[in-house]
Design a protein that fits this description.
2 copies of one chain form a homodimer. The first copy, chain A, has helices at residues 21-28, 44-63, 77-80, 112-119, 168-189, 240-245, 271-276, 299-310, 335-347, 361-371, 381-385, 404-410; strands spanning 32-36, 39-42, 67-68, 74-76, 95-98, 104-107, 131-140, 155-165, 195-201, 208-215, 221-226, 231-234, 255-269, 279-281, 287-289, 291-298, 327-331, 352-355, 375-379, 389-393, 399-402. By secondary structure, chain A is of the alpha+beta class. Chain A folds into 2 domains: 12-310, 2-Layer Sandwich (BirA Bifunctional Protein, domain 2), CATH 3.30.930; 325-410, Anticodon-binding domain (Rossmann fold), CATH 3.40.50.800. In chain A, the strands form 5 sheets. In chain A, strands 3, 7, 8, 9, 10, 11, 12, 13 and 16 form a 9-stranded mixed β-sheet that branches. The interface between A and B is large, with 50 and 50 residues.
């Protein structure tokens, strides 16, 4: 895409009402636009990143046989009363609204109740199980304060997956598989090295639970890590009993790190199937409650964490697989030559943002650093004379003069 | 995909609370699930259709340089007051909600106001225009009654595009282009022959306007058509003056047909740019209001209209380009042979729903007719003996015995 056509602009100054690094940089780069605290529009560059993250998640979930659906924001009271989550005294981040006839409705902050209720239409026998269903769906959460940029939204896209299993054993097998799938997702998104499967407290159906925590100063949590032994524990839940339960020697040393939760995986047991009466008949015709789990990833949160983890003083640094474009191609008054390179790269299937704007080199370079596309190619009088390209990775300082074929083969 | 793995089931009976054909068939086929009137979950089969329609629209809009964004449902009062559309007495289908601090918020039923407001961050000079921005975004409309299935939703996905042009002339050029783009979209979706660019009344900035109407008994509108001359007029707006204005001979004969609106294209003039103060400086440094238009397609409505137009007494009939799968492959006790065909078709890039379920042939056939995939292949003892496949199109009665290569070359 030609940058002159992109309707967004970059901004030199950070917005005054943003405190978080992710919101500052994403706003300055033209990725997001703030409608109100915790409510952001995704602009063309931001939507490209969001869609790439979604596609990674979708690919990994489809591989294990999960099926995509799309449920609704509007919610009926009747479905949330049996689990006792309708009342604002119990769940304090509901947004509520009303139909014309004054029927109270809620805006879903999660979907355990409606998906459990829906599955009653499709589950009656053990032959119907397991079911793994997921969606990318907009959640609404009436947060008192929302000042972490896209890390904590009042309206945000969430991937939520639910497993409907025969029993605890089958659920646990799937839960173990999901640990691997989640780690694969975080690796592909680019934060594998910074992300830890973290032991935390359990909820109703297990003594312990797991969450995925990514090390970042922007995080709201603190985890204790031993990298050698690959152990991470949420500081809130760290105690002698936990160490004993996981056979961890009390002499093991831990680093303390601020971190942000990027994924959670829950054993729900029969809490929701019991409340909403989701049963199946087993091989002997005996009725049993379906055993459930839920698995969440806040997609903008994940995107915001990536920004927080990799950004430097010059701007955003996108990992390859989720960058809005693979290559930022910059013409320094060599539009004819650059157009040729642009066409050649595009024909090779490479996504290129081509800076064809009539600006000074310094402005183009600082915009490229701010936007954070991982590979930068500059076409200048010098490179044309040498019949080469100037290539630089966003996260390296080295500038290479390299010919097109070698670049394509070795770096892109 | 193997049908035994699909978590949805088909239903023999229509849901008692549905009156519309689209909701009956889509529910019976396992495409949608009703949360409440006008609020539907999209199940795996339904989501596949929805995504295919979205991709057609996206492709056609990207071709003309439109840029995709994603705005928010939650809306601040301040942005809607200048255009006088905040009050429930003016716009009667708002859903309203509240922040914790009692600030009133709305759930967007459209996005003229917020996108106009947002563009103030990106538009200052004539060089910044034109901008064509669109989104696929969930709209909320507090309809008093919603009983047309997915044709009229209280919560539904809408493609809305906005043009930000220098002046009336530039807007009109784009408006003409969008007429063609919309017709191309409806052709690809499969309802080109039934869809008419229809003259209707104008709104504030033009004497006349256009909408796209598709002939269907399920429609809420009536249009007058002359197919030979390719003229369609909304019956509400039909009169002598209109005929004169469009140079239509008053002797021209029209058929009267029920129809459903599948797209609308509006000249907004400077209504919103004036209300929200979206201006640019022209070449002479003079400030002018941006000239706007808006272009909507309700994606589930379009899907529902397709169902209404093509369904027969046995079920849904999907057009090729938006079908959930291209081929419905049915094994009649020939699982080994069918598996081979399944693999071969999949390798050829064809999307196949493979009915590997342990059911009687009659049940498989009636499910295939209900689900409406355009191409059906049956593998039976007879076909295996003859080293051929049994092929039937959903919208034809002819059953062909044909070999694999010929089928692939001539029909898929």
């Amino acid at each position: 895409m030609k940058q002159s056509k992109l309707f967004t602009k970059t901004f030199k100054e950070s917005p005054k009402d943003e405190k978080s690094l992710n919101a500052k940089l994403l706003t300055r780069g033209g990725f997001i636009y703030k409608e109100m605290s915790g409510v952001y529009t995704f602009l063309p560059l931001g939507l490209r990143v969001l869609e790439k993250i979604k596609n990674i998640i979708r690919e990994e979930l489809n591989k294990i046989g999960a099926q995509e659906v799309k449920m609704t924001a509007l919610q009926k009271k009747e479905i949330w009363e049996p689990s006792e989550r309708w009342k604002d005294e119990v769940v304090d981040d509901w947004f509520k609204t009303k139909l014309k006839n004054n029927t109270e409705l809620g805006l879903a902050f999660t979907h355990e109740e409606p998906i459990t209720n829906m599955m009653k239409s499709f589950v009656s026998s053990y032959k119907d199980l397991p079911i793994y269903a997921y969606q990318f769906q907009t959640k609404f959460r009436n947060e008192l304060r929302a000042k972490s940029g896209i890390l904590r939204g009042r309206e945000f896209l969430m991937k939520d997956l639910y497993d409907f299993s025969l029993d605890k054993k089958h659920h646990e097998d799937f839960y173990e598989l999901m640990k691997e799938v989640y780690m694969k997702i975080f690796q592909r998104v680019g934060i594998g090295d910074q992300t830890f499967l973290t032991i935390s407290s359990g909820g109703s159906f297990a003594k312990y639970s797991y969450e995925f925590q990514t090390i970042t100063g922007a995080g709201e949590d603190i985890i204790l890590i031993n990298r050698e032994k690959n152990i991470a524990i949420n500081k809130n839940d760290f105690n002698e009993t936990l160490l004993k339960d996981f056979n961890i020697d009390s002499a093991v040393k831990f680093e303390e790190k601020k971190s942000a939760e990027v994924g959670d995986i829950y054993n729900l047991g029969d809490k929701f199937s019991r409340a909403l009466d989701l049963k199946y008949k087993d091989k002997n015709g005996k009725e049993k409650f379906v055993y459930m789990g839920s698995y969440g990833i806040g997609v903008p949160r994940l995107m915001g964490v990536v920004v927080e983890v990799f950004a430097d003083e010059r701007g955003i640094v996108w990992p390859e697989e989720i960058a809005p474009f693979q290559v930022h191609l910059i013409s320094l008054n060599q539009d004819k030559e650059t157009e040729k390179i642009y066409q050649k790269l595009s024909k090779s299937g490479i996504e290129v943002l081509y800076d064809d704007r009539d600006l000074r080199p310094g402005e183009k370079f600082s915009d490229a650093d701010l936007i954070g596309i991982p590979n930068r190619i500059v076409i200048s009088k010098k490179t044309v004379e040498k019949q080469a390209l100037e290539f630089k990775k966003r996260n390296e300082n080295e500038v290479r003069l390299i010919d097109f074929d070698k670049l394509l083969k070795e770096y892109l």
